Amino acid sequence: MSEYFALDVETANASAASICQIGIVHFKDHQIVDEWVSLINPLTFFDPFNVSIHGIDEDDVAKSPPFATIYPRLEDVLGGGFIVHHGHFDRTAFTAAYEIYGLEPLESKWIDNTKVVRRTWEQFSKKGYGLANLVEHFGIQLDHHDALSDARAAGKVFALASEHTGNSLEEWLAVVSSRSTGLGPKRRIAVDGAEGAAFSGETLVFTGSLREIRSVAAEAAGLLGFDVRDTVTAETSFLVVGTQDTDKLGGYNKSSKHRKAETLAGKGQEISILTEEDFWALAKANGKSQ
Q: Model pTM?
């Protein structure tokens, strides 16, 4: 029997740890058998940009439990199982929350559905593998940026890919850890991601001033598997935001890279925006601390 949990989170601000909603959909043999969703009090502020995306604000979560309170239930449900998530951000958010609350990581097997899609259908190998585009292509209902709806849609796309290829969960776990995506030769870039690492095939951009030398941060990102580039494009999957010098932002409170990333995210691109603290927590969790 094939059993897995599709998962999605929404966050209150650029910190991946600021989880304000979690949606989980339980699949058996690629059919939905149960669903669960909860608002989460992130115990921090809500960025207007994030609110404009998912519509959740401080008032909505005022009486909701923080992540640490629901963690035991998450551990009971997800511990040791397969978790399907569309893009790395959901796993990154959990990693950041573990760090903030001093919790042990779930002993689960995480499968990034974007890598599944890119390796299943040639037309989505380079672009179009964002969830909004996929549900339109496959005729799946979606209320985008509602955690339960996103999780349900991601799980259904994963089910289609599994039925199309015949791959088991264990086979998908092996496939998505591989660097190859059938994208052809890579362009020359500052840092090539390590093959077979946790984030192989993902593209990361830094913006703002970092507390570490940029080359050191880029090297750490490369060890995690990231391809580090200088500009935000349709290939970017992560943006790490350092300290912003407002005197150099032309009247804006965010850099041009940050604003472009938010624009792309608003259009449905799967792009995660992290603080530098989140990035180093991610590096530490994966054994690549500075």
A: 0.67
